Amino acid sequence: MTWYIISAVVLILFFFLRLKKAGGQPILSASISTNDGFDFEVKFKQLHPEVKPIEYLRLTLNFITKLYYISKESKEDNRTQIRYFLQTMSESTSLENGLTAFVGQVTLAESVLKTKDTKEIVATLLYKNIQTRNIITKLPLTWYPNQFYYSILALTIACETYLDGYQNVLLHKALKNLAKAYYSSGETKTLQASYVLPNKAFIEATFAN
Asked: Rounded to whole angstroms, how far apart are CA atoms 193 and 187?
């Protein structure tokens, strides 16, 4: 009986390690914290010594699609709001111009004092290969109304400061691509879509005229 238990544990560990390896190497993480659902602190941690600014862009794209997958149409943190954000960005003339439409909805704080009311989302970007990034997220057990949507706004605004002019244009194009995908008839609500769409949006933006 003991050998069956040991074998089962080894097998589970083997598959866990394979899945972890398949996901990629952690390179960049962001923690998005709030005590009230309106004021947000965004803290980044570079998990690899050679992280480039472009990874902040890719973290943003993967974060949006992952939270879109987690969200539900019927809840306050819903996909409608995320699509609205993407559509607004798509109709704007630039990334900066698009983000001005959301001024006042969230406030970026230099720090949030951790209390029992603090609710934090942690997102870690994984490098799989030159074309592919994956993401893993850690969510609080409960969250404030619209916290997913506002966290997307907070992270996008925070990441913008790490990008140069070309990368800002690239992110703007990629957000347009995501908007097009989420307003299309294609499948966008699956976990698989949440991993495929940000990489596809980035690659298409990179090679667009």
From this structure: 7
